[in-house]
Design a protein that fits this description.
Layout (H helix, E strand, L loop, with lengths): L2 E6 L12 H10 L5 E5 L7 H4 L9 E4 L2 E4 L1 H11 L8 H30 L7 H23 L11 H10 L12 H12 L1 H15 L6
Parallel strand pairs: 1-2
Antiparallel strand pairs: 1-3, 3-4
Length: 217
């Protein structure tokens, strides 16, 4: 059955890999599954046809036969559970990898998104100047903990897994801020994720949508 995902017709980031369909594209590239992309406008995302797939009117969605999914964590978990390449066979190692998927989305991403909102959406508020350092400190607290846990390892739980895919995707949002550079092992960790051929293919495919240029790979 053909896999179809949805993505922005024009991504707010201009195709820099931050739109969440990049995570799904990356997962599908890692497991070698072909897929089709249906592009949707911001207006179409709020119309009944798309809301039937994603009740909150966002992207991406995932369709395969009668199955329709939304939320990147759920979609990547489904892909990893049905195809070899993103989760270990050993039950305990598998559980650890899944735990890092949850950690990326539930523990590390929230303060990073809060920082993005503080800068982009609240920067003109009179209280923003006082609040922003507090938000940055919360991000640094999480990064310090993550850095300590990663240590000198290449990946979070043995070999590369869906946990790393989600964590790298989350950390990518910090790249323009320079905060990640304060933690050398996390900056190197992010670079390893971006260097993966599957990531490059996913990034190029998303960029091509926004620039009109065909993927180089």
């Amino acid at each position: 059955m053909t896999i179809t995902i949805t993505a922005f017709e024009r991504s707010p980031d201009g195709g820099k890999g931050l739109a969440r369909d990049a995570r799904v594209r990356w997962a599908l590239e890692e497991v070698g599954q072909p897929y089709e992309v249906r592009l949707v406008s911001f207006r179409a995302m709020k119309e009944p046809a798309h809301l039937a797939l994603h009740p909150f009117g966002q992207i991406p969605t995932y369709e395969e036969g009668d199955l329709a999914l939304f939320e990147t964590g759920s979609i990547v978990f489904h892909i990893a559970g049905h195809h070899v390449g993103l989760l270990p066979d050993d039950p305990d190692a598998r559980a650890r990898a899944i735990t890092w998927m949850f950690a990326a989305l539930s523990t590390v991403e929230p303060p990073i998104l809060e920082l993005a909102n503080a800068r982009l959406l609240e920067g003109d508020k009179p209280w923003s100047r006082e609040r922003l350092p507090l938000v940055v400190d919360r991000v640094r607290d999480r990064l310090k903990q993550l850095s300590a846990r990663l240590g000198r390892a290449d990946w979070l739980a043995g070999g590369f897994s869906a946990g790393d895919l989600m964590m790298v995707s989350v950390l990518l949002r910090l790249k323009p801020s320079g905060i990640l550079d304060e933690y050398a092992n996390l900056a190197a960790y992010l670079a390893r994720g971006e260097a993966r051929p599957a990531y490059k293919r996913a990034f190029d495919a998303q960029l091509a949508v926004n620039t009109g240029k065909p993927p180089t790979g």
